[in-house]
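Record Enoyl-CoA hydratase, 269 aa.
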Amino acid sequence: MDVLPISTPHCRVERDGHVVIVTMDRQEARNALSSDMLVGLASAWAYVSEQPEVRVAILTGAGGTFCAGADLKAMGTPSTDPEVQARAAAIANFHWKGLLREDLPTKPIICAVEGYAVAGGTELLVGTDLRVVGESATLGLFEAKRALFPMGGSAIRLPRQIPYCHAMDLLLTGRSVTAAEALAMGLVNRVVPDGQALAVARELADDVAASGPLAVQAILRTYRDTLGLAEPEALKVSDEYGWPVIGSEDAKEGARAFKEKRPAHYQGR
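=>
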């Protein structure tokens, strides 16, 4: 697996074929967010979108912890790394992009969570598309309890992703929830034995990468671009994105592979 040069002191970005693995790595602070980390995350998401051969990303944390949220001092303190400083100056709103609030990647992100994923950690999770969580993980949006606000977008996104009453329970009480509760709410896809979240996330990533990339990206784009639209208008957008996929070379390859009873080899064309 190749470590990419866009990595920063608190964010390791690796690539293995069609899969990019992004690891938050500030273990001494339970992977709390810092400027170094957010620049790395923003760079990773841009790379995932820009590289045609990348089909899916995994977001995880080092040392058995996902992310303990925002470290306001570290987020407000510039990096001591000159290259990261330059990238921070060059990437508009790198904080929001790193947090998946702006410019979401055009490819799916799978979240692999162990340990704490609280406050900003849960906000990052809410910005991903598939979520695998270790059975002892702790999730929660603590902001209201501390008289703060979830600036990563969860006040908007969470009630759109899970039933309203569950979303308000998390947002208004600021309480923590177990992995089992998060699964019951529909907040996560799978709960796995501790230490297995990344391995299972990688299995999911391989499944996504084996699907037609044009189809996967069009499905994501259709969902995002039709939020708030009435069904007739949404269907027009769906047709606009869907018909080119149906007529693609990948679609022809999918039909051939099915007929010939072999794995499909998609090229993104």
